[in-house]
Task: structure prediction
Amino acid sequence: VQLVESGGGLVQPGGSLRLSCVASGFTFRTYAMSWYRQAPGKERESVAHISSTGYSTDYADSVKGRFTISRDNAKNTVYLQMNSLKPEDTAVYYCAGSRRYKSGRPDYWGQGTQVTVSS
Result:
């Protein structure tokens, strides 16, 4: 099983980034997917969830209206579009796969991609 994130980097406040996560080694279309993040000195927190079909999504209050999670089951890929980025969004972002939507206990984790929001 592999989850490989990409798209992180350094961006100025107010800017945008799109993270991608390519999955392999499991039946992607049957798994709910999520994005989590962990800032220095803080616990990992959930950012966004999407059901296996993509019909249901959910977001942390801190990112609602700014971030959008989506998936392409034909490409085994989940995305996180991040707009209006703030310095407090700086963190390592992880994608995760779960048998159950919003289970809070993912079965698979990626290695993470760094997002830094700074002027």
